[in-house]
Amino acid sequence: MLVTKHVLLASTVHATPYYIVRGMRPGPVMFITSGVHGNETASMAAAQKLADDCATGRHVIQRGLLIIVPRVNQQAYAKKIRGKPDLNRTFPRRMSGKAKHPLAAAVFQLAREHRADWWLDLHEANGLSQLSSRVLGQTLITNPGSRTTPACRRVIKRMNRSIAIRDRHFNLKQHELPGSARTAASRRLQARSVTVETCWSLKRSTRIKYQTKIVHHFLREAGMS
Q1: Which of 51, 95, 112, 194 is the Cys-Cys partner for 19 at CB 3.0 to 4.6 Å?
Q2: Nearest 5°: CA angle at 202, between 52 and 86?
Q3: 53 sits in which H/E element
Q4: Could you give all domains of the chain from N- to C-terminal order, each with its CATH number?
Q5: What's this model's pTM, rounded to 2 decimal places?
């Protein structure tokens, strides 16, 4: 297994590190982004932990290629804000369309160059979806009719078995969000794309744990580890 560190948009105000983890055998390509919104720090910590664990050998990618961009929106992260404009509304909306922000364009181009089969976009949200269907906390989100849905249901089932407090259980939501990384990846790259949302009201260490476990479940779903 080989781990290399790179910089996206180097020498620009949008420069941000990313990692490429090459498995021991050929296999699928999984693209993981976090920090599209700069105030969702637990998801960023989970993505960075995965990169660090791969670099130190604590986690091994058996097959395929794993690309991790732990803090996409560095400017928003420095201010601990969601970001203006909202980067998750600036990814390509149409088959022939372009991204509306240079950072979204660079991230999307990186995924396209490596022909991503999977795209996990890690986020955080308000509320517990077990208590209200109107909130996004503790959900996995796919586009309607996505071929990723069966894998999401299996991951949710495994996660919920490990969570003793029922209010914290995960749910599946399905909707398109034009301009989001998830919908762009599904439409333009035909990737199995998922948005992961943990709930802000939970302890940060708990959110990091949930994000980490979900990513590991999807790596196994993809046959990569």
Answers
A1: 51
A2: 70
A3: helix 41-56
A4: 2-221 (3.40.630.10)
A5: 0.97
Q: Which residue has the tokens 């400017």?
A: 75
CA distances to 74, 109, 181, 212 from 42, rounded to whole Å, are 15, 25, 19, 10
| Dihedral sign, Cα of residue 95, residue 96, residue 100, residue 104 | positive
Q: Is the pLDDT of residue 189 over 90?
A: yes
Q: How far is CA 137 from CA 132, 149, 153, 171, in A?
A: 9, 18, 16, 9
| Both tokens assigned to 221 | 């779903």
Cα 200 from Cα 216, distance rounded (Å): 21
CB 92 within 8 A of CB 99: yes
What is the tens place of the pLDDT at every residue in 191-211? 999 999 999 999 999 999 999
